Amino acid sequence: MMITIRPYESRDWSRLCAIHDISRLDELDLTVGTDAFLSLEKTADNEGLFNHKLFVADVNNTVQGFVAYGDEELTWLYVDPKFYRKGVGRALVRHAVTNSAPTMKIELLEGNKPALELYLSEGFQVIERIEGQLEGNEEFAATGLVLRRED
């Protein structure tokens, strides 16, 4: 399987929405519950999807995942569930780390064990635990973890 990481193009939008929406439900099922779900179409602008660098993972000419990141923070990472544990998420994380500052952080919901395992295996360490409200859907309580990686 060949994974190509390339910049996001506007033609990728519907695929990003499909990937986010199905994998976000998996994420919420492990953490705060699926009642907190909001689609990418509703959250992309408010949560700054396009505020930073946005890249997609292309497998056999189909987008199967995406990552958004700034110089010091990985802000979004979603992979089509059919491609979980097949190297797509890891390739996206490595792309972000390679193309950012020597120190990078990420926040994730406590309970998202698959994501936590990926980040830990890529050199991130948990530095903080935060209790509060779910970002983007504040009517739900959430606990988050802050991870940091330093080269």
Written description of the protein model:
Strands 1-2-3-4-5-7-6 form a seven-stranded mixed sheet. 27% of the residues are buried. It is of the alpha+beta class and 151 residues long. It is globular, with a radius of gyration of 14 Å. The protein has four helices and seven strands; from the N terminus they run E-H-H-E-E-E-H-E-H-E-E. Helix content is 28%, strand content 35%.
Count of beta strands: 7
- What is the topology, as strand order, of the major beta sheet? 1-2-3-4-5-7-6
Secondary-structure content class? alpha+beta
Largest sheet composition: 7 strands, mixed
Q: Give the CA-based shape.
A: globular
Number of helices: 4
**What is the first-to-last residue Cα distance?**
29 Å
CA-based gyration radius: 14 Å
What percentage of the residues does DSSP assign to strands (E)?
Answer: 35-45%
What's the pLDDT, averaged over the residues? Answer: 96
Helix coverage percent of residues? 25-40%
Low-confidence blocks of residues:
none
Q: From N to C, what is the helix and strand string? A: EHHEEEHEHEE
Brief overview:
The protein has 151 residues and is an alpha+beta fold. The chain contains four helices and seven strands. It is globular, with a radius of gyration of 14 Å.
